[in-house]
Amino acid sequence: MARHEYVHGKDSQREDNKKETCDCAPFYSRRHTRGLAKIQNVNLCVDIFYFLGLFMHTICKGIRYVTAEPLPNEDEATLKKALDKVCKIFESRGFKVAVINADQFECLKGKMRCGVECVAKGEHQPDVERSTRTQEEHTRTVVQRVPFLKFPIVMAESAAIAPCLYRNFPNK
Fold first, then answer.
1. CA dist., res. 20 & res. 25, Å (int)
2. To which H or E segment does residue 44 belong?
3. Is 121 helix (H, G, I), strand (E, B) or coil?
4. Cα angle 114, 50, 125; round to 5
5. At CA 169, angle to CA 164 and CA 172, rounded to 5?
6. b/e 101-118 (16+ beta carbons within 10 angstroms → b)
7. How many CA atoms within 13 Å lie on the side-chain side of 125?
8. In terms of pLDDT, which residue wins out, 6 or 105?
9. Of the candidates 46, 26, 42, 57, which has an alpha carbon nearest to the alpha carbon of residue 136?
10. Looking at the record's lineage, which domain of life comes first (predicted)?
11. Which of 1, 95, 99, 100 is the most exposed place for a label (fewest CB within 10 A)?
């Protein structure tokens, strides 16, 4: 009977075949974070979309980071709270939100720590509009794959937020 070189079952590594380990995280190598050191101030584009509930969608112009926040309503206090939450995400990573570009956030002008620029009536912010369409398409894909007829609120929120995680994952 011939002896084969492949392993059947579990086998421990030999000393000469052990792989070297790295202290850095495998997904965020220097190649992925090379340009981020130069960026300090970022512009945030914001829009609201509806998919099984109300959501605020943001995309950063400089680093293309995407977020989605569930909103109970479109009140000024709710919008301010959601935007503050997103701004804190960027500040915790060392970025400063300089300007927020939006098309329906006139009520927040002068009430945020950063500037709020709103486009004219009937106009749209092109960066966030394209990103919102992509977000809605990805959310529909998540919902279509689930074998349920009705969604609980928590599940609908997770279905809308999950595509952001995949879109923010660095490319190889």
1. 14
2. strand 41-50
3. coil
4. 45
5. 150
6. bbbbbeebeeebebebeb
7. 25
8. 105
9. 57
10. Eukaryota
11. 1
* Predicted TM-score (pTM) of this structure: 0.72
Tokens matching residue 170: 């660095």
Q: Which token pair is 153?
A: 């609120």
Q: pLDDT tens for residues 64-107?
A: 899 999 999 999 999 999 999 999 988 888 888 999 998 888 88
Which pLDDT tens digit goes with each residue over 39-63?
788 899 999 999 888 999 999 987 8
- Residue spans of the domains in the chain: they are 37-168
Is 3.30.420.10 the CATH classification of the domain at 37-168?
yes
SS3 86: helix
